[in-house]
Amino acid sequence: MTGDPDQVPLAESYTEMTELLLPNDTNYLGRALGGTVLHWMDICGAIAGMRFASEQVVTASMDHVDFISPIDLGEVAVVEAYVFNTGRTSVDVKVDVRAENPRSGEERRTTTSFFTFVALDGDGRPTPVPDLVCPTGEEEELRDGAVAERREQLEDVADRLGT
Fold it and tell me: What's 73's domain CATH number?
């Protein structure tokens, strides 16, 4: 903790949650439904945003999502999120998902996206968020990596759309 309520370290927003992929959340191939994965990502991202802002947050946007690898029935989905950038009333959150085979311990990356959440006060109005600080080299690397990855992802989408 920085001691300054107007500055919050990236690590304070870090959130990890796990979900066991059960039949109700699978398609006919026994793989995770895309909407289920997006739901988990939105929840994990929102928790990271709330931890950072110490306020309720709502989803403002979600960047492009590629489903890189499936999550199979019986696997554990590990969803990780952290704030990597802030605006006046918004927080940008990187959310990564990986699949874990609980028997072998094998893991693989499945999905990554970037969310923007807006902090709300008790009356439901946008409210300022603290500044992000990265007091450790590890936090700086996470922030810088997320900024670069988001920029690259947005450029790739623009290229695909021909803009």
Answer: 3.10.129.10
Per-residue pLDDT band for 3 (boundaries 50, 70, 90) equals low
Question: Do residues 94 and 149 lie in contact, with contact meaning Cβ atoms separated by under 8 Å?
Answer: yes
Q: Domain count of the chain?
A: 1
Is residue 104 in some structural domain?
A: yes
Q: Which domain holds residue 117?
A: 7-161
**Does residue 1 fall inside a structural domain?**
no
Distances (CA, A) of 4 to 8, 11, 24, 132, 160: 8, 15, 45, 11, 43
Q: What is the pLDDT of residues 85-108, one digit of tens each?
A: 999 999 999 999 999 999 999 999
Rounded to a whole number, what is the largest CA-CA distance in the chain?
52
Report yes or no on 17 lying in a domain. Answer: yes
Measured at the alpha carbon of residue 91, what is the angle toward residues 66 and 153, in degrees to the nearest 5?
25
More confident residue, 154 or 99: 99
Across 7-125, the runs of DSSP E, i.e. the strands, are 7-9, 15-20, 56-62, 66-67, 76-86, 90-100, 107-120
